[in-house]
Structures are given as structure tokens and as C-alpha cells.
TrEMBL record:
<comment type="subunit">
    <text>The complex is composed of two ATP-binding proteins (NikD and NikE), two transmembrane proteins (NikB and NikC) and a solute-binding protein (NikA).</text>
</comment>
<dbReference type="InterPro" id="IPR027417">
    <property type="entry name" value="P-loop_NTPase"/>
</dbReference>
<protein>
    <recommendedName>
        <fullName>Nickel import system ATP-binding protein NikD</fullName>
        <ecNumber>7.2.2.11</ecNumber>
    </recommendedName>
</protein>
<comment type="similarity">
    <text>Belongs to the ABC transporter superfamily.</text>
</comment>
<dbReference type="InterPro" id="IPR003439">
    <property type="entry name" value="ABC_transporter-like_ATP-bd"/>
</dbReference>
<dbReference type="GO" id="GO:0015833">
    <property type="term" value="P:peptide transport"/>
</dbReference>
<feature type="domain" description="ABC transporter">
    <location>
        <begin position="6"/>
        <end position="256"/>
    </location>
</feature>
<dbReference type="Pfam" id="PF00005">
    <property type="entry name" value="ABC_tran"/>
</dbReference>
<dbReference type="GO" id="GO:0005886">
    <property type="term" value="C:plasma membrane"/>
</dbReference>
<keyword id="KW-0813">Transport</keyword>
<dbReference type="InterPro" id="IPR013563">
    <property type="entry name" value="Oligopep_ABC_C"/>
</dbReference>
<keyword id="KW-0067">ATP-binding</keyword>
<keyword id="KW-0406">Ion transport</keyword>
<dbReference type="GO" id="GO:0016887">
    <property type="term" value="F:ATP hydrolysis activity"/>
</dbReference>
<keyword id="KW-1278">Translocase</keyword>
<keyword id="KW-0472">Membrane</keyword>
<dbReference type="InterPro" id="IPR050388">
    <property type="entry name" value="ABC_Ni/Peptide_Import"/>
</dbReference>
Length: 326
């Protein structure tokens, strides 16, 4: 069963007298119980894509799509009240900064009580809500959940607060969870612990996940599929093993090479020349062209996402060459 189906998503932001395109022709689907790793460097459009799907972008955002459906229901046809009722219950997002997700003058327990209203748990009373809250906190390996519920956000470390946020989302029992770089600004040990928690949860609960990250190593560990984004477009999408073992896009290969260099602790990392801004808003040619070692005049035309047999989808005319198939 398809949990999420996105076709032809475009996102632009209105400026004073013009608009700038951020995401272009984004299409992917996500099956029930699966994890999609959405990977790319900062500015690639990962978060904006997911916020567009969940209707969380500011008013100056212009969102167009052929289709955005959730469990077969067309989200584009919902009014604001219907969408608001669905977001936070059927669909939820874990943001990068857990501090900004909590009211600083309210306890962690208060946040679960407030979330209980969205789950229509008022009829069960505080006892049932706190019982479910403690169970959710145990799922994220908080040793003393009862004490955690009494704490204010500022009394908890960043890693502990991120665990509480994950637990709060689990408490809501959504079918789709978007995790937006949930390990950002955490030290290496805590980062590994949070990733391990997600890895265990995805095998235990029946929700579908979109896990946004810039770290190919994390995506490899936690994802069933990987979609690589560059300058607002998906440039490669397929099963995790296929992408990692034999990338067919130069950008994907560069990300994997960097991840392997980090693992081997080399003195100097191989950099991708230039920066991502050179491809933003480009429609008439390959967006990665200015940074690509395989660039040629053939790349100066719109490049479509196409299927590669026994691999997945790739947005590159040299895909077979990159993948070693020619």
C-alpha cells in the first residue's frame, strides 16, 4: 500500500516583484512501513519539500503539484481545517531544533496532555495520558520517564529533549513521520544513540518515515530507499543497497565517496568544486553541471528523471557511464 504519493511538486517563494523556484518536479512514493532517506547538502530543498507536503510553508510560498496523496486521499483537495486536523495525528514532523518545538514555560508532561487532546484522549483522563506518555518515553530509552514528564525543557540536555520530542510524536501514533535532521547539533555519541533509536522504531512500529539527512552513512543505516536531492530536484532514487553499491549520478557518487573518506579518517577530504547556488532555479540544463566532472554541451538541456533497469531513477544523461554499465 502506498502511504504517500507525490507527483510533480514545485515550490517557489514570492519576492517583491518576482519569485524564485526552490523545488522543481519532485516526484516519489513511499510504501507503508518503509523508510525513505532524503539526502543532500544544505540548501538542496529537502526540508522545503517535506514542509510543502505537510502544508507548513509560510504564506509567500507557492506550491503546485500534479498530485499529493496520503493513503489514497488527495491532500490538495483538503481545506485548511481538514488539513490541520490530519497534521499532528495522521502525519507528524520532528524538527531539527527540539528546543523550538516545546513551550519553555510548560513541563514535558503538559505537552503530552496537550497532544492527548489531538488524539481525543480527554475521555481517558490524565492517568491514561501519562501512562501512554511514559510508555512512549520508554520506547526512546528514557530511563525514568515519570521524572522526565515533570521537567521543563531547559532542564533537559539537547539529546534528552530530542528523545522527548520523538516520544511525543510516537504518542500521537501517526502513520507518516518526517524526521528533519534530528541529530543536528548533537555530539557524536548522542547522534548515534538517536539514530539507533530510529532504527529500532522503524522495525517495531508500522509507520512510514521520511528521514532527512545530509549524512549518507546515516541514510545507509536507517533507510529502505534513498532519494538524493540537489538544487531542488531529485537526482537519484532507488533501493538503499543499489544506491550505495552502485550510484548512477555523479553527485550521489561524490556524497558516498565523502562518507567513505570520513570513515577512513583521511587527512584531506575530496571536495565537490563550487557550491549548490549555481544550480538553483535553473530549468534549461542540468543543475549539477557547473560542478560535474562529466559535464559537456550535451548537458545543456532539461534533464528528466529516467528509469535505469535494475537500479532506480536517475536524472543524468551519463548515468550508465557513472554506474559502470557502459
Amino acid at each position: 500500500m502506498k502511504m504517500l504519493d507525490v507527483k510533480g511538486l514545485n515550490v517557489s517563494f514570492a519576492l517583491d516583484s518576482s519569485s524564485i523556484n526552490i523545488c522543481s518536479d519532485v516526484s516519489f512514493s513511499l510504501a507503508q512501513g518503509k523508510v525513505l532517506g532524503l539526502i543532500g547538502e544544505s540548501g538542496s530543498g529537502k526540508t522545503i519539500t517535506c514542509k510543502a507536503i505537510l502544508d507548513l510553508l509560510p504564506e509567500n510560498a507557492e506550491v503546485e503539484a500534479q498530485e499529493i496523496s496520503f493513503k489514497g486521499q488527495n491532500l490538495l483537495g483538503l481545506d485548511q481545517k481538514e488539513f490541520d486536523a490530519m497534521r499532528g495525528t495522521a502525519m507528524a514532523m520532528i524538527f531539527q531544533d527540539p528546543v523550538g518545538s516545546f513551550n519553555p514555560v510548560k513541563t514535558i508532561g503538559w505537552h503530552f496532555l496537550h497532544a492527548g487532546k489531538r488524539r481525543n484522549l480527554k475521555q481517558y483522563g490524565r492517568g491514561k495520558i501519562f501512562e501512554d506518555a511514559e510508555a512512549a518515553l520508554k520506547e526512546v530509552e528514557i530511563a525514568n520517564p515519570g521524572e522526565a514528564l515533570k521537567k521543563y525543557p531547559h532542564q533537559l540536555s539537547g539529546g534528552m529533549l530530542q528523545r522527548c520530542l520523538i516520544a511525543l510524536v510516537l504518542f500521537l501514533k501517526p502513520s507518516l513521520i518526517v524526521a528533519d535532521e534530528p541529530t543536528t547539533n548533537l555530539d557524536n555519541l548522542v547522534e548515534r544513540q538517536i539514530v539507533d533509536i530510529f532504527d529500532k522504531l522503524r522495525k517495531k512500529i508500522d509507520a512510514s518515515f521520511i528521514f532527512i539527512t545530509h549524512d549518507m552513512t546515516i541514510a545507509e543505516q536507517i533507510s529502505d530507499e534513498i532519494a538524493v536531492m540537489y538544487a531542488g530536484q531529485i537526482v537519484e532514487h532507488g533501493n538503499t543497497e543499489d544506491i550505495i553499491d552502485n550510484p548512477h549520478h555523479p553527485y550521489t557518487r561524490a556524497l558516498i565517496n565523502t562518507a567513505r573518506e570520513l570513515e577512513s579518517d583521511v587527512d584531506v577530504l575530496t571536495e565537490i568544486p563550487g557550491d549548490i547556488t549555481s544550480g538553483l532555479g535553473v530549468h534549461d540544463k542540468c543543475r549539477f553541471g557547473p560542478r560535474c566532472p562529466l559535464y559537456s554541451a550535451k548537458c545543456d538541456r532539461p534533464i528528466e528523471l529516467r528509469h535505469i533497469e535494475k537500479h532506480g531513477q536517475v536524472r543524468c544523461i551519463e548515468a550508465e557511464r557513472v554506474g559502470g554499465n557502459v
